[in-house]
Design brief:
CATH topology of the largest domain: Jelly Rolls
Radius of gyration: 58 Å
Mean pLDDT: 76
Order of helices and strands: HHHEEEEEEEHEEEEHEHE
Number of strands: 13
Low-confidence stretches: 1-7, 63-76, 292-303
CATH architecture of the largest domain: Sandwich
Number of helices: 6
Number of domains: 2
Helix content: 25-40%
Strand order of the largest sheet: 3-6-7-11-10-9-8
Structural class: alpha+beta
Largest sheet: 7 strands, antiparallel
Strand content: 25-35%
Length: 303
């Protein structure tokens, strides 16, 4: 029995020792766990405080850089390159200042005479004379005569080309002239006081009937010359408004031969230019008060 008691005592001592050891370990473990929890909690509070501080700073700081850094591909709602095109469109929409271009004057000038009803266009550089001063002249040859079969003709207007129109040639002058004679009949208007003298045999040439625009006219020409001057004139007659209208195209040249490199002017070219004026002639109906008035008072107006 003595042996059995010892065994139980030893067993109880061992249990007590184990319990004390376990209690010590549990206390240590509890103490260690509580310390770790405190450390974790402190760390969490510290991190939370840092996050709050960073969030407050980010709200207060301006964000222009974020808009520039944003990637268009990451935001499908925004159209690509929209912000880059906007400034260009604004610049293009701005009104541009327009420079005023000088207004060009027309090459031709319109002439109209209410007394005779004559109107025509002529080059702006030509010189116009009307009324009593409209009788044309050729240098060295004097006045160019009218070619009516009866007297009573009145000069209406004359336009003359500048003397320097054909430099380097023997050109002296060129003109377009309008005359009117109210004392002639339609049959008399078809004839001329002198006929064409260009025939090689010196025989007169009968007047020709030509069409200028929509008007039928009779035409003839005359040629005269002196030692140093030559003159050629072309006459056209038409009967309208109860009167005979005469149109004279004239060309004057200096000398028979070229001297010092001067060439003969192209006569066909000069007369073609004068015939363009003739092609613009219009005869407007006359009012009754103008029928008894002599032609000569003219009014010119620009086209």
């Amino acid at each position: 029995m003595t042996t059995t008691w010892k065994s139980d005592r030893n067993t109880n001592d061992k249990k007590s020792t184990n319990q004390a050891t376990n209690a010590t370990i549990s206390g240590r473990m509890l103490s260690s766990c509580s310390r770790q929890q405190k450390f974790v909690m402190i760390a969490c509070f510290t991190i939370l405080a840092l996050l709050l501080a960073m969030s407050a700073c980010s709200k207060q700081s301006p964000k222009p850089a974020l808009a520039g850094v944003s990637n268009p591909a990451s935001s499908p709602a925004a159209p690509p390159a929209a912000t880059a095109v906007a400034p260009t469109a604004t610049v293009a929409a701005a009104p541009l200042s327009k420079k005023k271009t000088p207004r060009k004057r027309p090459a031709n000038v319109a002439y109209s005479d209410p007394n005779s009803g004559v109107s025509f266009l002529y080059p702006r550089k030509f010189a116009l004379t009307s009324g009593d001063k409209a009788q044309p002249q050729l240098p060295g040859l004097g006045d160019v005569p009218m070619n009516f079969v009866q007297s009573g003709g009145v000069a209406v207007a004359t336009v003359a080309a500048p003397s320097a129109s054909y430099p380097g040639t023997d050109f002296a002058s060129a003109f377009f002239n309008v005359n009117v004679n109210r004392s002639l009949s339609p049959q008399e208007c078809e004839h001329f006081a002198f006929t064409d003298t260009r025939d090689a045999d010196g025989e007169p040439v009968d007047a020709e009937r030509v069409k200028v625009g929509s008007t039928d006219m009779e035409t003839t020409s005359d040629f005269s010359a002196s030692a140093i001057q030559q003159a050629e004139t072309q006459y056209y007659h038409s009967y309208e408004n109860g009167a005979c209208y005469e149109y004279v195209l004239g060309l004057g040249t200096a000398g028979f031969a070229t001297e010092g490199g001067i060439e003969h002017v192209n006569r066909d070219e000069v007369f073609a230019r004068l015939q363009k004026i003739l092609a613009t002639v219009q005869i407007n109906p006359l009012e009754r008060e103008h029928l008894a008035e002599p032609a000569g008072a003219a009014v010119s107006s620009e086209e």
